[in-house]
Amino acid sequence: MKIYRFSRRLSSLIFVVALIFSAMPFLPSERQVLPLGYLLMAAVPLIVAAIGALAWKYGIYVDGSTLEVGAFTRRHYALCKATSIEVRRTKAGRVATIKFSDGQSLSFGSNLVDFDDLLTLISQRSSLPVTKPVWDP
What's the rounded Cα separation, in Å, for the pair 11 and 121? Predict the structure, then answer.
């Protein structure tokens, strides 16, 4: 089984940002903050930490002829039902979309580590070519 994930450095950076946000209310300040303000400020690091946990746990697991995708719960896709593999360019980078015969589709971005290797592996396992944009090298 081969696993493709986001960079662990990205997740670690998100956790550091959450830690910084959680330390902000304890810095000395000349202003008085209402207790409700502290509660609202506590929500920000919790949300940032949740995003970091999702980035840490998310993965695409390629095992034989199936794909398992997700962070805390995984969705299963059969590669034998894949009908096309398309890559398009966006402002954030490249995005791959795999379409299946049952109407489902799976999209993932190039911010995964070894994105090109993942596309090659899926292409080999499904016997489908990867359709790239004309301007993509």
Answer: 25
Query: 62 forms bridges with which residues in the sheet?
Result: 2, 67
Query: Cβ neighbours of residue 30 under 8 Å, at least 6 residues apart?
Result: none
The HSE-up count of residue 131 (CA atoms within 13 Å, CB side) is 9
Residue carrying the six token digits 């502290």:
38
Closest by CA position to 16, among listed 41, 39, 49, 58? 49
- Taking only the tens of pLDDT, the chain with its 137 residues reads 889 999 999 889 999 998 888 887 777 767 666 666 667 777 888 899 999 999 999 999 998 889 999 999 999 999 999 999 999 988 888 999 999 999 999 999 998 999 999 999 999 999 889 887 766 55
Residues linked to residue 123 through DSSP beta bridges, in sequence order = none
**Model's pTM, two decimal places?**
0.79
Residue 114's identity, in one-letter code, is D
- Cα(65)–Cα(107) distance, integer angstroms: 18
How would you class 106 by CB atoms within 10 Å of its CB: exposed for 0-12, middle for 13-18, buried for 19 or more? middle
How buried is residue 113: exposed, middle or buried, by Cβ count under 10 Å (0-12/13-18/19+)? middle
